[in-house]
Please model this.
Amino acid sequence: MWDRFLRACRREPVDRTPVWFMRQAGRYMAEYRKIRERYTLLEICARPEVACEVTLQPIVAHQVDAAILFADILLPLEPMGAPFEFAAGEGPVVHSPVRTPADVERLRIIDPQESLSHVLQAITLIRRELEGKTPLIGFAGAPFTLASYLIEGGKSNNYAKTKAMMYAEPLVWAKLMEKLTEVIRRYLRAQVAAGAQAIQVFDSWVGDLSPTDYVEFIQPHLRPMFEDLQTLGVPVIHFGTGTGALLETQRDTGGTVIGVDWRTPLDVARARLGDGVAVQGNLDPLVLTAPRPFIEKRVREVLDRAGSKPGHIFNLGHGILPHIPPENVRYVRELVHELSAE
Amino acid sequence: MWDRFLRACRREPVDRTPVWFMRQAGRYMAEYRKIRERYTLLEICARPEVACEVTLQPIVAHQVDAAILFADILLPLEPMGAPFEFAAGEGPVVHSPVRTPADVERLRIIDPQESLSHVLQAITLIRRELEGKTPLIGFAGAPFTLASYLIEGGKSNNYAKTKAMMYAEPLVWAKLMEKLTEVIRRYLRAQVAAGAQAIQVFDSWVGDLSPTDYVEFIQPHLRPMFEDLQTLGVPVIHFGTGTGALLETQRDTGGTVIGVDWRTPLDVARARLGDGVAVQGNLDPLVLTAPRPFIEKRVREVLDRAGSKPGHIFNLGHGILPHIPPENVRYVRELVHELSAE
Model:
C-alpha cells in the first residue's frame, strides 16, 4: 500500500502502521557521509540533484513509508537577510542576530519561487524519482523555533533573549512573527505546488513556553497560517518536543496530525487530543541504540499505546542521532510493519 | 508568620502565600559576586561560615519565607570518588566519567558525617544565625540527575550515554542507582539531623525520560528513598523540570510537595496531583527580566491558578539566572505577599 502514510494522516484504515523517521537521511548513514565528503550540508540543499539523492537514501536502505525532503529549517533565513553557518560542533550560528526593531524591519518577506527555487526544484525532482511509490513530505520550521535561532544567534538553553523580546517588546515580537509566518506560509504553499504530498511544521523548541505565553505570543500568528495551509488538501503535521502540557493548545492552533515526543505516552496523547486529529510518534531516538530485545519491547509499547483506532504514524519523538546504528532503523521499520499487520 | 513556608508544605492555612526562589543566592546579587571575588563556588561550599553568609544574603535582601542552604547538588560526587570542577562557561566537568561496571564498582558509599561535614556544619550555623525567624531548606540532587552528570561527564542535551547504560546495562545502572540513592538518603537524613527543617530533592533533568523509562529505571530506587525520608517528619519537596507528562508518576514516587515548572499551569497540576500533596512553583524565571506590568500579570496568574486551597508555595519553575535584576526578585516577593493577603 504505497499511500499508507497519507491514509493514516487522514485517519483512514491502513494495512500496516506507516513508518518514517525524522532526520532519516543523515550522518548515521554511510551513504550520506560519503556525499558529505564532497558537499557541506548547505551545498547539498542548494543542489537539487544532490538533495534528491540524499532524500532517497533511506527509502532505498530502509523502505520507509514516506520520504522527507532533505533540507534545513533555517534555509529561509539567508534570503530573508539573516545569513548563518553551521559552525563545527556548535550547530547553527546566525552572524547578525535579530534583536532590535530595526533588525526586524530589515528582514525581507521573500518569494520562495525566487529565493528558494532550488528547494522547489528538488521536490519536483524527488517526486519524479519516487515514481508515485512513496509519498513525499515537505517541511518548514515554525515561527517560534525560527525566531529563537534569529534572536539568540543559535541554539539556546533557555531562550532568554527570545523571551526578553516577547515580554518587553511585544510589538516588535509580533512584527517578527508576522514576517516569519508569512514566509513559512508562502514557502509551504510553494512546496505543495512543487509536489509535496504532506507538510510538517517543526516547532521543535516551542515546548519551552508556558501555555499562557503560547496563547498570547504564538497562537494568534500560527492559527491563521495553519488555516490557510489546511485549505491545500494535504496533511499538515504539527510537531514539537517537550509539549506534554501544550498538546491541546497545539491541536487548537492547527494541523491534521499532531507530533508527540516520547515524554507523553500515545494513549495519553490520543485521549487528550480526541478523535479529530491523527498522531505521529513517539519512540525515544536513543532506544535505537539499545539491544534488540529492548528495542522490540519499546516498539511494541508504542504500537499498543497508539491503539487500533486509525490515525497513527510511527516515528521517533525527535530526529535520528548520528551514532544510531542504521541496521536498527531498518529493524524498527520491519518490526512496526510486522507487528501492526498482525 | 515565621513558618508560613512550613505550614504551606503541610497544606495548612497561611496568612500569605510563602515565597522563596530556587538559586536565590547567586551571581545575580552584588553581595554574592563580592564573595565570589575571593572564593570559588566550591570554596564557598567548603567553608561553613562563608556558605552561611551567602545563604543569608537573599533573606536580608528580599525577606523571602525560606532560606535554602548554599551548596551544589554535585558535592557528594567528589567523596564518592568522582572529582569534578566548574569549567569556565561550560558548567560542571566530571574528570573521569562513570561508564563501565568497574567505574560503578569503584564509587564509594560515603558517610556524610565524615565526607560532607562542612555542609552539615553550615546547616547548624545557618540555623543559629536565622534565630528561628526563617525556616531552612536542605537539599540534594536526585539519583537520575546526578547519574547523568557522572555518566555524561557534564550537562547533556540528550542523555545519550546515560540512556545507553540504562537500556543496555540495566544491572550496572541499577547498581549505580542503588549507590546514589543510598548516598542521597544518608546525606539528607544528616542534613535534617543537623537542622534542616525541610528538604528538596532536585531531579532537575528527569523530565527528559518517558514515563515508562521512569517507572522501570528510576522509581524502584527513588520510592524507598522517599519513604524513608518522609519518616523524618519534615516536608520533602520533589522537584523536576519538563515533567508535564510525569507529574502523577512523580507524586506516586514520593514527596509531600511537588515542584512544577512554568510549562504546566498550576490549576492543571493541582487537578492532576489531587489533594494529597502541596505544590511549589511556577513562574518562568525569565519573567523576572520583563517590565513590571508584565511581571505583575504573570504573578497574578500563578496565584489565581494555584487557587485558594491551602498548599501552595510560590517559587520559580527553575533557578534564578545571573542576569535577573535583584530588585525584581524583591518586587515579586512583595507582590506575592500583597496579593495573597487580600
